[in-house]
């Protein structure tokens, strides 16, 4: 049982480049989330999904897009990367919105 | 939307002492309050949670209290050990009909042997 798997673990992007952060879970969880973590700022919700085909914006969605074509996968797309997107990104899933979140190991992204 | 304030931002205690971290929230409809622990370079992990119909919950050395009237909740760690050193995050649900957790900015706890 792998839990929540994120790839890649590290990435350096140049300004204006695009990339997709991958997230997959094998727990059959309906709820999935993308957070970014900046030093001293806690976790900010980017997007979330309550099931396949359903996504919604969180607190800081600008510059990002998501899709949820299957229960297992919830990729996060960065278009036209900016230095402000330098952060650690965590994907998480849960059985319900008020249950334990299982986090992935994170992706450290640097935009230069 | 929900706003969660967490204090203190850093906390140092001697091994064996108690540690208390406090959070306040703004949305009176919030009804779920988890606490996550994040060790250096690791992912956050749930350590305890409490719902609005309960005033206190305990799990071994960890306890959480909730005061709905004052809209604040606290994490209490007793008999602290070096392995308790980590960043602790409180969170609150964003109210009825929402599926979002809003996190506090975190408290870095250092337990000095």
Describe the structure using short key phrases.
heterodimer; A: 112 residues; mainly beta; seven-stranded mixed beta sheet; four-stranded antiparallel beta sheet; 0% helix; globular; B: 113 residues; five-stranded antiparallel beta sheet
Overview of this structure, please?
The complex is a heterodimer of chains A (112) and B (113). By secondary structure, chain A is mainly beta. Chain A contains no helices and eleven strands. Helices cover 0% and strands 50% of the residues of chain A. Chain B is mainly beta. Chain B contains no helices and eleven strands. In chain B, strands 2, 4, 5, 9, 10 and 11 form a six-stranded mixed beta sheet that branches. In chain B, β9 and β10 (101-103) form a beta hairpin. At the A-B interface, β5 of A face β4, β5 and β10 of B.
Entry summary:
Chain A has strands at residues 4-7, 10-13, 19-25, 31-37, 43-51, 54-57, 64-66, 76-78, 87-94, 102-103, 107-111. Chain A is mainly beta and 112 residues long.
- Unreliable residue runs of chain B: none
Helix content of chain A: under 10%
Main β sheet profile of chain B: 6 strands, mixed
Q: What percentage of the residues of chain B does DSSP assign to strands (E)?
A: over 45%
* Low-confidence blocks of residues of chain A: none
What's the tally of helices of chain A? Answer: 0
Spell out the helices and strands of chain A N to C. EEEEEEEEEEE
Map the helices and strands.
The complex is a heterodimer of chains A (112) and B (113).
Chain A: E1 4-7, E2 10-13, E3 19-25, E4 31-37, E5 43-51, E6 54-57, E7 64-66, E8 76-78, E9 87-94, E10 102-103, E11 107-111
Chain B: E1 4-7, E2 10-14, E3 19-25, E4 32-38, E5 45-51, E6 56-59, E7 62-67, E8 72-77, E9 86-93, E10 101-103, E11 107-112
Parallel strand pairs in B: 2-11
Antiparallel strand pairs in B: 1-3, 3-8, 4-5, 4-9, 6-7, 7-8, 9-10, 9-11
């Amino acid at each position: 049982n792998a839990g929540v798997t994120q790839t890649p673990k590290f990435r350096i992007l140049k300004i204006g480049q695009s990339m997709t952060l991958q997230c997959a879970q094998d727990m059959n969880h309906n709820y999935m989330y993308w957070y970014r973590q900046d030093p001293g700022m806690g976790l900010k919700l980017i997007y979330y999904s309550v099931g396949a085909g359903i996504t919604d914006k969180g607190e800081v969605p600008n510059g990002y897009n998501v899709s949820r074509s299957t229960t297992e996968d919830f990729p996060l797309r960065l278009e036209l990367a900016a230095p402000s997107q330098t952060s650690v990104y965590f994907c998480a899933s849960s059985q319900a919105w008020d249950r334990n979140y299982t986090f992935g190991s994170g992706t450290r992204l640097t935009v230069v | 939307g929900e706003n969660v304030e967490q204090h203190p931002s850093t906390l140092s205690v001697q091994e064996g002492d108690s540690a208390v971290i406090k959070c306040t929230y703004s949305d009176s409809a919030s009804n779920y309050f988890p606490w996550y622990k994040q060790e250096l370079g690791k992912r956050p992990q749930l350590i305890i949670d409490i719902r609005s119909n309960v005033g206190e919950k305990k799990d071994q050395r960890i306890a959480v209290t909730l005061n709905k009237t004052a809209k604040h909740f606290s994490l209490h760690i007793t008999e602290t050990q070096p392995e308790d050193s980590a960043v602790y995050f409180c969170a609150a649900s964003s109210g009825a009909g929402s599926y979002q957790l809003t996190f506090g900015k975190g408290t870095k706890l250092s337990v000095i042997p």
